Each structure stands twice: as structure tokens, then as C-alpha cells.
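Cont'd.
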Amino acid sequence: MDFSILTDNFGLYLEGFKNTIIASVIALVSSFFLGVIVAVMRISPVKVLNWLGTGYVEFFRNIPVLIITFFFYFGLASIGIELDGLKAGTTALSIYTSAFIAEAIRAGIMSVPKGQMEAARSSGLSYNQSMRLIILPQAIKIVIPSLGNQFINLVKNSSILGVVAGLDLMYQADLISARAFVTFDVYLFVAMFYLVLTIPLSLGVHYLEKRLARSH
Amino acid sequence: MGVIFLSVMYRAWSRFFKCYYLKILNTLNSRRKMGEGKFMIVFDNVNKYFGHFHVLKDINLTINQGEVVVIIGPSGSGKSTLLRCINRLEAISSGSLTVNGVPIHDKTTDINKLRRGIGMVFQHFYLYPHKTVLENITLAPIKVLGKSENEAIKTAEFYLEKVGIQDKANAYPAQLSGGQQQRVAIARGLAMEPEIMLFDEPTSALDPEMIGEVLDVMKKLANEGMTMAVVTHEMGFAKEVADRIVFMDEGRILEEAIPAEFYVNPREERARIFLSRILNH
């Protein structure tokens, strides 16, 4: 292993690392909120919302994230909306991940006993209030492990940014390897940078899981 | 002589009838419409279907203000459904159901507003597990009635004391026994200061040891004049507290009687069989 690859290009690696973190954090937050909204739509008693939610999930879950990314990068550019690689990639990542998160949260909502909603409604709370104050907090607690998996996937999937010049780790790695005519070592170091992100994330999820289990 | 006496009596009677009897009837009726008088819950020919299954058949039942009505019957007889129609957890299929003067089947009825005045206690408590006892009780008064947090906490503490668990205010539901949880659920209902309390088999999920403490709270409530509809098999409670027993089977009300009458000498054969079974188990 040639550590000079790492030390010589440390600036580029760091730049990529930074952008990967930015893209991941933004996509994590927005896919979570998007996912909650779509999950609530999917179980909504309003038929139209129901269909929209189901359509959203089935569409975005069943196409490659690369195609969604190309849509935001090349597709929108062709009708005059130009997004840079970072923005296009992050948007695609958020939408793609939100479909999975929506499914996870929906499963969580379904596993909250029906009586919770009835108790909340019978005390005069509206459907929306009951959902927000009673059902969702319980549902999210239940699905934290599977949300954690989705977030780890998200960080790894952020490598899609490399394809559309998103300036992330993967993009920088391509650059370095093209310049130095080395592939194996360059990508090994990239893998290590990803691990620096995903392993703490995974541990964090474990910790949360344990703490929440204790609190009730 | 006799004829004159009779005709005078007749006139007096018809006069009384026109002036007073009709007036009394009218005031009763208008009170019923205003919702401030005697009739709190009125089922008028109510039917309810789950798909093709006819759950409630031609239900006619009136529950007066301050009355405690105990509904009993075999499982699947529709007693829980009947109760759940009162706060529209179940929609009725036909007929009319008036609660506190408001037709609850009406599309224009603001159901959330109506539900403020109807507390409900469930078999499995359904306390919110992610909230403390105090938060469980103050949530609806704050979010629905718009009370300030301080005010809501004061009310909550008052009712917690009433159900005898003021020292558990900051515990989570999972840290309480079943009996304590059910008493918190009752306090949660009372904190909305409802005019009607519905109890759906409130002691059926409890250890035998804990049934008494819940029934005691319910008795206290009944003595204070709360209008209560209770689905339960607790005969001791029914005998002591109920103003009326309603016996249901296969979606119909078969018998309505005062407890002394019902338990000693039920009119219906089906009720007799039911009673002998629950007494000799």
C-alpha cells in the first residue's frame, strides 16, 4: 500500500470527504421529512393522497438512483434548469432514499396499536394532531434500526455524485487515480473515508436503540 | 248530581291536560333539543353493519343525565360497538343517534368538538407509552381545550389525586401496574371535564387483585352524578351502582331493567342462560 497517494492528495480527499458529508447530511434530513410525509399520505384515509403516496414510493423505489440523478443533472438541464452535480445528486439521493424511509415509517405506523389512535381521537384531538403527537413519535421509535440502515445506505449511495461531477469522495478519487495511474490504493483510501462516516453512524443507531428501549 | 260531578271533573282534567301536560312534554322535548336536560344519549332505531354483518339491530335506548347504564351480554353481541357509536369511533348505518343534543351521525357535526364532552376508557388502557402520566393527562386539555400548561397540570393533579395515584405523575405508563394504568386512563378522560364517560370493559384486562381499585374509582364517579355507559361483566358493580341494566344478544337489546329486577328475575330466557353461565363458571 502506497501511503504517499493519501498524503500527496490529502487536500483532494478532504475536499471530497467534506462534500460527501454535506450531501449526506442534507439528503438525510430531507429524505427523512419527505419520507414521513409520504408515509402519512400512504396511510391517509383520503384516497387521492393514498394513491399519490403509493405511486411515489413504487416509482422511486423501483428505478436505479443513477437514473434519478441523471434526470436532475441532464434532464432538467435540457429544459433550462441547470443544477450543479452536488445539488442534482443530493436531490436525487433525497428522493430515492425517501421512498425507502416512507416504507419503513409506514411499517412503524402500522405496528402502533390501533387503540392509540382511538384514544387520541376520542379525547378530541384531530386526525393530524393524533398522528403528529401520538402515532409518529411511537412509530419512529420502532423503526429506528431500519432507519439507521437506510441512512447508512444513503451515505454509501452518495457515491452517485461522482458520476455527475458532484465533487464528492468518489469524484475526487476518479480524479486522483486518473492523475497518478493508480487505482487500487486510491479507492482503498476512499473506502476508509466512507467507513469513518458509516461506522460511527451504525454505532450511534445502536446506542439510540438501546437508550430508547430503556426509556420505556 | 253524579253527572254534574263527572262533567266538572272531565273539564278540569281536559283543561289540565291541555295546559300542563302538553307544556311539560314540550319543555322536555325542547330541553332534549337544547341538550341541557334529561336525555344525554338517544339511540333511535339505530342499525349498524360491518360489511354484510348486521352488528346492531334496531337499537332504541335513552340514557338520561346522571344515569349509570351497564351494558352486558355475550361476546359478539354488539355491546362494545354500541358504546363506540356514541363517540363515533364507529359510524352508524341508519337511524339516529343524539348525544348531548347533537346528532352525531350528521355530516356537519364537528366530531372533535363533540368528543371533548365524552370521555372514554378502554379495555387495554391505551395510555401514550412515550409520555409520562402527567403528560398523558394534560395533552388533550392543552391541545384541544387550549388550556395553559399550568392550568392543565393543576387539573391533572386534581384528578390524579381523585384516582389515588398523585405520586406517579412523572412515571411512564410501563412503570405502572395495570390497575394504576387504568386509573390514569380514567383521570385522562376526566381531565377534559366531560359530561359523559364511556367504559369499554375497563377491568377485563386486569389482574383480579386490581379490579377493585378501578371499580372504586368508577363508583365514586357514579355517586358524583356522572353520566356513565359501562360495558362490563362485573356484577357486583352493576348491582351496586347501575341505574339500569341493558342486556344485548346478537346485536339486539333484549332486556332493559333495574339491576334488582334483572339479576333476580330476568324476563328473557336468553338473559337467564347468560346469567347462569357467568354465575356458575
